[in-house]
Design goal:
With 155 residues, the protein is α+β, with helices and mostly antiparallel strands. It is built from four helices and six strands. β1 and β2 form a beta hairpin.
């Protein structure tokens, strides 16, 4: 007759392996999310273009427990002519568009050069969304592969 015997020591060893894997998962996930955040920042910088001012205002931000990452404007201010704005306001205006004040020329022959009342936004955050989903899928695959390798090695 064939039988399988499992002792309390076997269960204890298996339990330790799973506990170690759970602890390792948090660290592996954090490392992969940091990598995803760096790649998102690089891709966003390429989409923003320009002279680098708005690009320089973007930063990668990790969640406290390492469960999420985002690229967003820094918590700084931009001082323009006679006005100070948080850089997030300026970034929102660039990505979402904004109104243009009509010229107030009153001369009889004055013809304004402005032909539109609105500047179209660049939409760089929205354009980055499909890439971010692909980056997250790749990161999830890498996390799974690293955990699998860790458990194969015996933890």
């Amino acid at each position: 007759m064939q039988s399988i015997t499992v002792t309390a020591d076997d269960l204890k060893r298996q339990s330790e392996r799973f506990r170690f894997a759970a602890e390792a998962f948090a660290q592996i996930r954090r490392e992969e999310l940091e990598d995803v955040g760096d790649r998102l920042k690089t891709g966003l910088d390429a989409l923003i273009g320009g002279s680098g001012k708005v690009r320089g205002w973007q930063e990668r931000h990790m969640g406290t427990l390492g469960g999420w990452v985002s690229v967003r404007p820094k918590a700084e201010t931009f001082t323009g002519t006679h006005v100070t704005y948080p850089v997030g306001y300026v970034t929102n205006a660039v990505t979402g568009g904004h109104r243009i004040r009509r010229p107030s020329g009153r001369a009889e022959r004055y013809r304004p050069r402005i032909r539109t009342a609105y500047v179209a936004g660049l939409g760089f955050y929205e354009a980055m969304e499909p890439r971010s989903e692909a980056l997250l899928r790749q990161a999830a695959d890498r996390v799974a592969a690293r955990l699998d390798q860790l458990l194969e090695e015996g933890g």
